[in-house]
């Protein structure tokens, strides 16, 4: 009988512990008693949760869960509140106090687990939902430049590149960008094309940025930093949202009329019984792109004093086709007549984003998610040329299983370049379709360049009847007879034919590459208890296919596998005032040796509001598939990846001259020919100016960084964030340009081979842009200060300043990646979300100092980026009864035309009006 009673008692207890829990309640704003619609209620340390309806009411079916437990109630713009649930049918009444601004946000990216931003062991910046709504820039992505330490480069209205801590580029493969944990780099380019294929403003919940090395937790791509964009959960953010934005750009320009910009977005999310939820997103942005129309003569073979529009060897920055040159007897160096970028590029840009997600809560602590993203658009990209990413498509599939302390995720990323092309090559190929010989007959493309120069030389030397000799203008006019003119049907036909001709014979760029990725992590802290322990890993496989247009892969398929794993342990000491964290990650790419990347950090909290931090971090970057295997002819130069198999049989790494010596040699030869010498004589006289190159095959690059900082809140009014970092780099991946004659560059005596020198003098050489590593060690350091102050009546004043320095040391400037970062950059912002009667405003100001930009577009020669400042501003009116906000704003309100990288377009002002409808469903 005693045993029977004991069994009954145990069964009764089990029923008590396993009973179904269903609680309800109301959430209001403290002091106003107004219901809070869309507030989120989550079970602490579980994933179960729900949201409030338009009356602030909620019902949470938590299933079978042990009592007591805690729920966390949050709402945008309010402090969160925790409530203990002791009854299976408890009624909750919560009043959340208003939070004017988020001085103590929760972030995830710094340690891959949730923590206070004040206690992050490394520098981290965050753009919240509130900041996204109040952002005055045209898109939230444009507004990221106003965060501390963030650099931005605009290649197109639909393509802005984000970077941190130097070594900036227009295509940044050293900076990882995640959207809901998915790396949204394009597999063929190996970098993210800004937010072209990301998330719409309506669906972005937050954006977190880690400046500097993050490889210890995120692997090789996070060498320079991380941007993690989190979209809105379908359970937490339900309802219908619609945004309509229209604006204008190209205001007051002499070369273009004012154009319209249009941005439409829609989001709908719905949950059923707090078990199943879905969301759909659609957005479309379209307009006329910025014009790249800097016609500065940049020909390095011509003395600066002789350059300009009348230079017969003019090579204008944004004119393409004029890179083809040849020294002519009597005339000197001459270039072909090129085409302006506006006649080659498709400036009608757009960005279409479609997204859908299904979420199913299997239990209180297990959720399955499937998400599909489709992006298609047109953008201009400044690389070794100006590329038109025309109708480019990027698709991702994501499947994830997650709990409160773990996740397992798999996804695929696939691209289709469709009608993309290289404008520099396009100008050259069009130039080869119409050239006539001296008898007036159109010649084949293969002999077009040589024939054009023959016509020019004959006319200049007075050997053509009716054309005055010794006259460059007359000679060019004669050589250009039959030239296809932009706007004509013949020109359009030649342009279209070259765009859809891929590989060495056309300007088209084709890629249908993809990669598959899986990763996961598990937090063992609850099981261990003595210290925190997090473990994770990832596996990725690239499957490249460009049909020979980017890679030599028509028959040789390129598949690359890489994997990595990490451990992170943390421990609080000295009454939990000191938090020590150690991380280590190991990564292996099949083509390179494995790399360990440790990170050590400490945070000392004098109080929860005052925190000092220090960290030692390491970073590494495997050469990307492009770094390893690109084999792209861009007209006057072939870009060649640094994997040994990629250049097999070409002998270019072993037998070539440095570009710098070839330029010096070419200038000397051109001057001698201009003085009457024959090309052969000029070559022999100046051959010793040529220097044999010494280029190594590619390998991973390495970084070591140290950082100290303080972040705290003073008197609950002033947020202070200051940090200093020092980073050193070895084996930096870079490009170097060489020229290769067919003859051996050195003779048997070890000196320059006259035959090879003669080929260089006659331009009978191949130019290559090779991927390799820096042989020298360089370093960079910087300091940043950020302040945010809460004024009376809801006004917020903030600002930050960053000073960055690059230390070349004893390194050869020609052998390292360029810093491409201003010494000073600063931002200020001032705003109030509710000045009076629903009116709010926000103003941002950005300024940065001048610096020299080095990039492959200009042959790694410097181009000055002038100092500039930008003002963005918006005013808005909220109509709560209509769930609508009207916003009037401007990006670059004073319409200053500035370029952020040499060769990229000058961006001007955008003036817009937006209407945003946001209605919760419940």
Automatic annotation (TrEMBL):
Check the UniProt entry and state the signal peptide residues, or none: 1-18
Topology with regard to the membrane?
A: Multi-pass membrane protein
- List UniProt keywords, sorted A-Z: Cell outer membrane, Membrane, Receptor, Signal, TonB box, Transmembrane, Transmembrane beta strand, Transport
- Gene3D superfamilies listed in its UniProt record: Carboxypeptidase-like, regulatory domain (2.60.40.1120), TonB-dependent receptor, beta-barrel domain (2.40.170.20), TonB-dependent receptor, plug domain (2.170.130.10)
Q: Which residues form the TonB-dependent receptor plug domain?
A: 118-225
Instruction: Specify whether Transport is a keyword of the entry.
Output: yes
Q: Which Pfam families match?
A: CarbopepD_reg_2 (PF13715), Plug (PF07715), TonB_dep_Rec_b-barrel (PF00593)
The similarity annotation says: Belongs to the TonB-dependent receptor family.
Name by which UniProt lists this protein:
TonB-dependent receptor
Question: Which species is listed as the source?
Answer: Mucilaginibacter pankratovii
């Amino acid at each position: 009988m005693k045993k029977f009673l004991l069994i009954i008692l145990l069964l009764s207890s089990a029923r008590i512990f396993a009973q179904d829990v269903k609680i309800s309640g109301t959430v209001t704003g403290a002091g106003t008693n107004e219901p809070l619609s869309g507030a989120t209620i989550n079970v602490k340390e579980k994933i179960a949760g729900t949201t409030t309806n338009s009356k602030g009411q909620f019902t949470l079916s938590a299933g079978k869960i042990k009592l007591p437990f805690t729920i966390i109630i949050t709402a945008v713009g309010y402090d969160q509140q925790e409530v203990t649930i002791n009854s299976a049918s408890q009624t909750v009444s919560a009043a959340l106090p208003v939070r004017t601004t988020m001085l103590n946000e929760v972030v995830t990216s710094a340690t891959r687990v949730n923590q206070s931003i004040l206690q992050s062991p490394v520098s981290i910046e965050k753009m919240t939902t509130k900041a996204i709504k109040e952002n005055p820039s045209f898109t939230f992505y444009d507004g990221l430049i106003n965060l501390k330490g963030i650099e931005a480069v605009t290649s197109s209205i639909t393509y802005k590149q984000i970077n941190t801590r130097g070594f900036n580029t227009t295509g940044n493969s050293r900076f990882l960008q995640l959207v809901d944990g998915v790396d949204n780099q394009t597999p063929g380019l190996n970098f993210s094309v800004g937010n072209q294929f990301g998330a719409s403003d309506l669906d972005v919940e937050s954006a977190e940025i880690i400046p500097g090395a993050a490889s210890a937790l995120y692997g090789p791509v996070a060498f320079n930093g991380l941007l993690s964009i989190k979209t809105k959960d379908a359970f937490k953010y339900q309802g219908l949202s619609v945004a309509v934005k229209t604006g204008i750009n190209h205001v007051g320009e002499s070369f273009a009329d004012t154009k319209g910009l249009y941005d439409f977005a829609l989001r709908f999310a719905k949950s059923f019984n707090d078990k199943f939820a879905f969301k759909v997103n659609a957005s479309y942005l379209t307009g006329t792109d910025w014009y790249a129309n800097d016609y500065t003569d940049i020909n390095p073979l011509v003395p600066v004093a002789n350059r300009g529009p009348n230079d017969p060897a003019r090579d204008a920055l944004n004119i393409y086709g004029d890179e083809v040159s040849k020294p002519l007897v009597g005339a000197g160096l001459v270039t072909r007549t090129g085409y302006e970028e506006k006649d080659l590029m498709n400036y009608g840009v757009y960005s279409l984003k479609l997204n859908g997600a299904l979420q199913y809560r299997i239990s209180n602590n297990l959720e399955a998610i499937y998400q599909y993203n489709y992006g298609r658009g047109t953008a201009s990209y400044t690389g070794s040329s100006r590329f038109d990413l025309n109708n480019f498509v990027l698709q991702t599939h994501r499947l994830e299983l997650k709990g409160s302390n773990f996740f397992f995720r798999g996804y695929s990323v696939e691209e289709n370049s469709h009608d993309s092309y290289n404008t520099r090559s396009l100008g050259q190929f069009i130039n080869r379709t119409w050239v006539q010989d001296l008898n007036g007959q159109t010649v084949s493309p293969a002999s077009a360049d040589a024939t054009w120069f023959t016509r020019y030389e004959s006319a200049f030397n007075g050997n053509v009847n009716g054309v005055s000799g010794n006259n460059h203008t007359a000679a060019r006019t004669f050589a250009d007879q039959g030239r296809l003119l932009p706007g004509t049907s013949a020109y359009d036909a030649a342009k279209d034919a070259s765009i859809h001709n891929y590989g060495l014979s056309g300007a088209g760029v084709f890629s249908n590459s993809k990669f598959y990725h899986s990763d996961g992590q598990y937090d063992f802290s609850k099981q261990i208890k003595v210290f925190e322990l997090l473990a994770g890993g990832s596996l990725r496989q690239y499957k490249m296919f460009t049909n020979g247009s980017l890679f030599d892969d028509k028959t040789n398929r390129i598949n690359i596998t890489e994997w990595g794993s990490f451990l992170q342990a943390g421990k609080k000491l000295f009454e939990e005032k000191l938090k020590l964290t150690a991380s280590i990650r190991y990564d292996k790419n099949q083509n390179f040796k494995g790399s360990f990347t440790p990170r050590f950090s400490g945070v000392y909290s004098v109080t929860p509001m005052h925190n000092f931090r220090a960290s030692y971090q390491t970073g590494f970057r495997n050469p990307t598939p492009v770094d390893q295997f690109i084999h792209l002819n861009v007209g006057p130069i072939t870009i060649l990846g640094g994997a040994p198999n990629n250049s097999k049989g070409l002998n270019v790494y072993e037998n070539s001259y440095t570009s710098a010596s070839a330029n010096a040699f070419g200038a000397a030869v051109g001057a001698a020919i201009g003085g009457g010498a024959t090309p052969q004589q000029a070559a022999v006289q100046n051959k010793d100016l040529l220097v044999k190159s010494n280029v190594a095959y590619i390998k991973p690059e390495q970084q070591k960084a140290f950082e100290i900082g303080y972040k705290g809140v003073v008197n609950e009014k002033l947020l202070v964030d200051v940090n200093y970092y020092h980073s050193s780099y070895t084996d930096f991946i870079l490009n170097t340009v060489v020229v290769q004659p067919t003859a051996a560059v050195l003779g048997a005596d070890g000196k320059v081979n006259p035959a090879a020198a003669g080929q260089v003098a006659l331009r009978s050489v191949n130019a290559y842009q090779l991927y390799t590593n820096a042989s020298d060690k360089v370093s960079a350091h910087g300091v940043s200060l950020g302040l945010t102050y809460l004024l009376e009546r809801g006004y917020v004043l903030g600002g930050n300043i960053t000073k960055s320095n690059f230390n070349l040391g004893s390194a050869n400037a020609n052998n390292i990646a360029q810093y491409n970062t201003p010494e000073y950059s600063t931002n200020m912002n001032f705003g109030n979300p509710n000045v009076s009667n629903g009116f709010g405003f926000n103003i941002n100001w950005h300024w940065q100092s001048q610096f020299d930009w080095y990039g492959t577009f200009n042959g790694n020669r410097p181009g000055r980026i002038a100092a500039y400042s930008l003002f963005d501003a918006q005013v808005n009116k909220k109509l709560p009864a209509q769930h609508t906000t009207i916003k009037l704003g401007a990006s670059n309100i004073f319409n200053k035309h500035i370029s952020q990288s040499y060769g990229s377009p000058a961006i001007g002002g955008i003036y817009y009006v937006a209407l945003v409808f946001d209605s919760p469903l419940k």
